Amino acid sequence: MKLELILSMLLFSGLASCQPSGTKQNEEKNKENTTEEVSALHADKTFVLPKQLNEISGISFLANDTEHIYAVQDESGIVYSYHLTSEKIVSEYEFAPAGDYEEITNDGSYFYVLRSDGTIFSFPVDLKAAQAKVNVFEGQLGKGEYESMSYDSDKKELYVLCKSCSQDKGKASVSGYTVQVQADGILTLGAPFEINLDAVNQLGGKALKSLKPSAIVKRSATKDWYVLSSVDKLLLILDASLKPKKLIRFDKKQFEQPEGITFDQSDRMFISSEKNKGDNALLFQYTKQP
């Protein structure tokens, strides 16, 4: 009886020891088939920003200028020019009264600043226009909260992405609008678009039930779209037709509150993070791209 018991125990132990190996092989195989990465971003330089930019929410470069990055922040209707070499703010331009400003982009001639209610302000990049001359595009986008906008130089349109819009409730998608850029920075509403979350979830990893974008930018070198989400702690890369390609999740301690993303003409990627609970807002530079 004892011998039979010992043999049974040995057999069970042998089967049990085989199971994790097969499971591990399956996990490794599944990992090979996913395009999700965790903490795949490694900054090669970090800028500690001045107090005026503690709530930095949007960043942009002008073409052929890799020395100055232009930024807006929550609550102030001001565009700040920050010099990367001297690491100082070198100019400030007040384009509008205080408000919840979330994003900045440009087409080389005009800056476009997005307010959280979907209103867009446009003004020449020389930053000399009086406030009365600033163009205001308002009441055209659907009711909701917006933080993401980028200029598409190929189509000469702005892409504005919802953070929280009523039409997205209960749907596995994030909606957005194109806004056509006319002469003198005048804007007209274009066609709607959406990002399909079911397609995003096919990349692997924990499924997303919703997505709260903080910023979007089109990378000129590849024509890909980069969508940053502070709430969801991720960077989503889509192709030119907005089809998901890659998902990068951040470690909780990697950023305090990442709300801005852009590329310069040298194809360096920059991500800005608000101060939140830290000592200062930070700007991260990435020479090697994900």
TrEMBL record:
Transmembrane segments: none annotated. InterPro entries: YjiK/CarP (IPR009722). It comes from the Bacteria. The keyword Iron-sulfur does not apply. Residues 1-18 form the signal peptide. The keyword 4Fe-4S does not apply. GO terms for cellular component: plasma membrane. It is found in: Cell membrane. Pfam families: SdiA-regulated (PF06977). Keywords: Cell membrane, Membrane, Signal. Its main location: membrane. This is SdiA-regulated family protein.
